[in-house]
Amino acid sequence: MKTLRNLSLVATLLCIVGTKAFAGTATQMTMYSKTLGKQMYYWVYLPTNYTEQSKAGKKFSVVYLLHQFSFWAAGWHIPSGQPNPEVDKMIDSVNGIIAISPDDGFMGGHSWWLDSPIDTIPNKKEAQLSSFLINDLKKTVDSAYATQPARGSTGLCGVSMGGYGTLHNLRIHPEVFSVGFAVVPCVNFQNWQYGFDISYVLGKNNPAIWNNYDIFPNVASYKTNNVKIRFYTTTSDFFRADNISLDSAMTKAGVAHQFDTLSGTHEMPTSERMVTILKYFQSNFPTFVPVPSSISNSVHKNDAIRSNGSARIEMQTGISKNTTSRTVQINGRSIRSHGLITQPSVVLKKPLH
């Protein structure tokens, strides 16, 4: 899908950010991973209305945030010399989403968010990060929080190495994840064979293994796995040429996607861009309609609003030279059921800066 390369782009949104101040929460949690055989930690970002809404029976979609190479989970909200996404504050810019940022716990952030197939590395058990995400972390989050566990309500977002992890896990686990947003991702391993410790987790002189894990040789597989893909590079990003080539390869293969080129360097998204990222997920997740405070305060957790029907949501994307728009068609009467509601079609637009 051909998309815009301008520095001022249009992103489809289902709601517009209001003037209220954002003030979500960030909490560090620990868990034991059977896959990795050790304790792991992750950060949970909850909107200010999470407790109230969850007690009223509402269920939240989840975005998993994957950190970059030689980085850590807290980088999504603690300043680190790069633009600070401030996810804890920005989570209130959308309705019905919580975010989880795990630490990969591998050699100081060198895992590449994949399952290493190399038997010769001494810590292979700790290098099974794809399996950790789906078998340990997601199950822990879904059991601890009021989530919508279905794939249609589960997404991935990552920066650089995490951007690769987003695209990789979206490809190999479309049964778990349905939406991905990759920020300045590394997408062509062949151009970086001697950097970023890729050879440690994939081995040296193993072209078959590298092709199996690389993004470019597997582009066509995205066409059939029913996932939503968006990624961006920046004007001074050292992965810029690879990202532009990936956009061309996906377009040639007929893979639906959105690609942007923005101003900046190889860095974390700014808070403003983080809002746009979260709203991209909101536009692709089932519609969440908050229960008014006057109602939710009187509704017990076991008396959640139920319906006798189900909501049907169809996404259609139209791309033109100057505008990217998304039409959401929801059929039937207005029905609330664990965060889903049917309503008339809506198309709203807001620029991505």
Explained architecture:
The chain is an alpha/beta fold and 353 residues long. It has nine helices and twelve strands. It has helices at residues 50-55, 87-90, 129-144, 161-172, 198-202, 207-213, 240-253, 271-284, 293-296; strands spanning 9-13, 25-33, 38-46, 61-66, 97-102, 154-159, 179-183, 228-234, 258-262, 312-319, 324-331, 348-352. An eight-stranded mixed beta sheet has the order 2-3-5-4-6-7-8-9, with helices on both faces. The protein has a two-stranded antiparallel sheet with strand order 1-12. Helix 2 (87-90) links the parallel strand 4 and strand 5 (97-102). The protein starts with 8 loop residues before the first strand and ends with a strand. The model is unreliable at 1-20 and 298-351 (pLDDT under 50).
User: How far is the N terminus from the C terminus?
Assistant: 21 Å
What value does the Rg take, in angstroms?
A: 20 Å
> How are the strands of the biggest sheet laid out side by side?
2-3-5-4-6-7-8-9
The tally of beta strands, per DSSP, is: 12
List the helices and strands in order: EEEHEHEHEHEHHEHEHHEEE
Major pleated sheet: 8 strands, mixed
Q: Tally the helices: what do you get?
A: 9
Structural class: alpha/beta
Determine the strand fraction and express it as a percent band: 15-25%
Mean pLDDT: 81
Query: Percent helix among the residues?
Result: 10-25%
Low-confidence stretches: 1-20, 298-351
